[in-house]
TrEMBL record:
Any one GO MF annotation of this record: metal ion binding
InterPro entries reported for this sequence: ATPase_P-typ_cyto_dom_N, ATPase_P-typ_P_site, ATPase_P-typ_transduc_dom_A_sf, ATPase_P-type_domA, Cation_Transport_ATPase, HAD-like_sf, HAD_sf, P-typ_ATPase_IB
Keyword annotations from UniProtKB, A to Z: ATP-binding, Cell membrane, Magnesium, Membrane, Metal-binding, Nucleotide-binding, Translocase, Transmembrane, Transmembrane helix
Subcellular location: Cell membrane
Segments forming domain P-type ATPase A: 101-201
Family listed: Belongs to the cation transport ATPase (P-type) (TC 3.A.3) family. Type IB subfamily.
Keyword Protease attached: no
Top-level division of the source organism's lineage: Bacteria
Alphabetical list of Pfam families matching this protein: E1-E2_ATPase, Hydrolase
Ribonucleoprotein recorded as keyword: no
Name of the molecule in the record: Cation-transporting P-type ATPase D
Membrane topology: Multi-pass membrane protein
Length: 615
């Protein structure tokens, strides 16, 4: 650019002609050597590159005395290439910037209780670290002491700090609030959430969407066609007596404006920008192909336990079968028997008893009976908490009534006599209903519930979240068969799940998303995308983002094709000045690149996620 402006100044000041020519030729060398070298490398593999076409056009212009126009082409082409590279690099940099959030140093607590500053990369699974107020968390781990509010917007996109206490997960790079935390490291530094985001974006950058692959396949043939048309546009007028300069100038202008630079850049920048934006908000999309598949979704199939629900049961109903005992008595007796149980139902009963107030009685001789329940001695009585199948529940319609409501029932028995029944149900995730509504609005069909749970429990949950199509009692192969049936009916299925039993259905689906916190390793490997914080509102948000990325790709292709068609027609049927052709061609390339990068903005994600939050 400096050399070109200097050449213009030399011409304006009437300097000797050789001065401006030397400056322009220096402009050719500095701005054109790299694309020329890259183009020659591609040519060695018997392919044509748009960079080489631009350099040939510039040299052709200089050969007929249009050295100024050729220099202008080199300047604009080099400048647009630099802008494209800088803009596309923002996709990677916006995600890699997360790595800078993770501190270099960590305060590790040794076995003897000594605190020592170490390199964060030296931390290993099982190490205990201290995170003081206003420090950044140095590793992914679980809180084993202390409490605080943690700003984890850099990883999950949550706008407000999240309270963290015993057993809560924390992520490397998030910012601690006013409390102090003791954290046990659960992941190697190379496997933290931020490191996985960077790795997945790198993998996504290496993959190419079907649209991009098609464009690249067509590009080679198109480039050969452009060269052939350029030669014809030069040779035919010359055969009919046209002068060399005008024929060559028109041919060079045609080669420039017909080159498919903007078409080549129409696809990947929008898709990679959308992937980076989703990654910043807690959804890891593994490839550009996966992003295209998400945009194609016509129906979403959702697992129940661990996906629409948290997988953590809670006590919702108590029935007394003994008039001498009230509901609180029943819960306290059951909690005493369940005190040492590791079963989720036992923990739910214990949690409910703790919130009801009275002290839980002491128990002895605890014993878990697989397939039946638990047994313990409580205040001189043998107390059992049994599944209905392990007890003659049919004699008590109250138990059957709990089950008919879709609850999981257990029977409380003292000294062989039933005294009560408890009904428990899984906890529905926050915003499940609004997420289901948003998904239905984005796809051509309402979501479908596919679950291995019993039909009554599934129907109860479906009614709560607004799903009408319920398919229950499904084994893993039956889930996969249901997905294949939907695909056979013409649907593009997105399956959302978390467990190992969901992996076959994910593999059969057109696209799949796994719940990241509780998801099984096989599920996380199989899925096309992972939601880090198990937030169901990110499902419709990422579908909306993928659909917007597809619209941007289509718009970019339309912009590129319109510019090429208009400039080619102008050159063939009128007189298109070379500088104007250069400006139009390179301008269209910059427009499509910048248009794609708009998907990096936080505003884009907020618009995509707004319907799921009811705004």
């Amino acid at each position: 650019m400096v050399l070109f402006v200097a050449g213009l100044a030399a011409q304006f000041l009437d300097a000797p002609a050789w001065v401006s020519s030397a400056l322009y030729l220096a402009c050719y060398a500095t701005g054109g050597w790299e694309p020329a070298w890259q183009g020659l490398q591609v040519l060695r593999s018997r392919s044509l590159d748009v960079d080489l076409l631009m350099v040939v056009a510039a040299v052709g212009a200089a050969a007929i005395g249009q050295i100024l126009d050729g220099a202008l082409l080199i300047v604009i082409f080099a400048a647009s290439g630099a802008l494209e590279d800088a803009a596309t690099k923002r996709t990677e940099d916006s995600v890699k910037g997360l790595l800078d959030l993770a501190p270099d140093q960590a305060t590790r607590v040794d076995d003897d209780g000594t605190e020592r500053a170490v390199d964060a990369q030296e931390l290993r699974v099982g190490d205990v670290v201290i995170v003081r107020p206003a420090e950044r968390v140095s590793a992914d781990g679980v809180v084993i002491g202390g409490a605080s509010d943690v700003d984890q917007s850099s990883v999950t996109g949550e706008p407000l700090p999240v309270g963290k206490s015993l057993h809560d997960d924390v992520f490397a790079g998030t910012l601690n609030g006013a409390g102090m935390l003791r954290v046990r490291v659960t992941k190697d530094p190379s496997q933290t959430v931020v490191a996985r985001i960077v790795a997945l974006v790198a993998e996504a950058s290496a993959t190419k969407a079907k649209t991009q692959l098609f464009i690249e396949k067509v590009e080679q043939r198109y480039s050969v066609g452009v060269v052939a048309a350029t030669l014809a546009l030069f040779a035919i007028p010359m055969a009919f007596g046209a002068d060399l300069q005008s024929a060559l100038l028109r041919a060079m202008t045609f080669m420039i404006v017909a080159s498919p630079c903007a078409v080549v850049l129409a696809t990947m920048p929008p898709l990679l920008s959308a992937i980076a934006n989703a990654g910043r908000h807690g959804v890891l999309i593994k490839s550009a192909v996966a992003m295209e598949h998400l945009a194609d979704t016509t129906v979403v199939a959702i697992d129940k336990t661990g996906t629409l629900t948290t997988g953590t049961p809670r006590l919702t109903a108590v029935v007394s079968l003994d008039e001498r005992l009230d509901d609180d008595d029943i819960v306290q007796i059951a909690a005493a028997a369940e005190r040492f149980s590791e079963h989720p139902l036992g923990r739910a009963v214990l949690a409910a008893a703790e919130t009801r107030g009275p002290a839980i009685p002491q128990s002895d001789n605890f014993r878990a009976v697989p397939g039946r329940g638990v047994r313990a001695d409580v205040d001189g009585q043998v107390v059992e908490v049994l599944s209905p199948r392990a007890f003659a529940a049919e004699e008590h319609p109250e138990v059957a009534a709990l089950q008919s409501r879709g609850l999981t029932a257990v029977v409380v028995v003292t000294d062989g006599r039933p005294v009560g029944a408890l009904g428990l149900e899984d906890t529905v995730r926050d915003h499940s209903g609004s997420a289901v509504q948003a998904i239905a609005a984005l796809t051509s069909a309402a979501p479908i519930l596919l679950t291995g749970d019993n039909r009554r429990a599934a129907a109860r949950l479906a009614a709560q979240v607004g799903i009408d199509d319920v398919r229950a009692d499904l084994l893993p192969d039956a889930k996969a068969a249901a997905v294949r049936e939907l695909e056979a009916d013409g649907h593009r299925v997105l399956f959302v799940g978390d467990g190992i039993n969901d992996a076959p259905a994910m593999a059969a689906a057109h696209a799949s998303i796994a719940m990241g916190r509780g998801g099984a390793d096989l599920t996380l490997e199989t899925a096309d995308a992972v939601t880090v914080r198990d937030d169901l509102t990110t499902i419709p948000a990422v579908i909306a983002l993928a659909q917007r990325a597809r619209r941007v790709v289509i718009a970019n292709l339309a912009i590129a094709a319109t510019f090429i068609a208009a400039l080619v027609a102008w050159d063939l049927f009128g007189h298109l000045p070379l500088p104007l052709g250069v400006a139009g061609h390179e301008g269209s390339t910059i427009i499509v690149a910048v248009n794609g990068l708009r998907l990096l903005s936080g505003r884009t994600w907020r618009k995509a996620s707004a319907p799921a939050h009811g705004r």
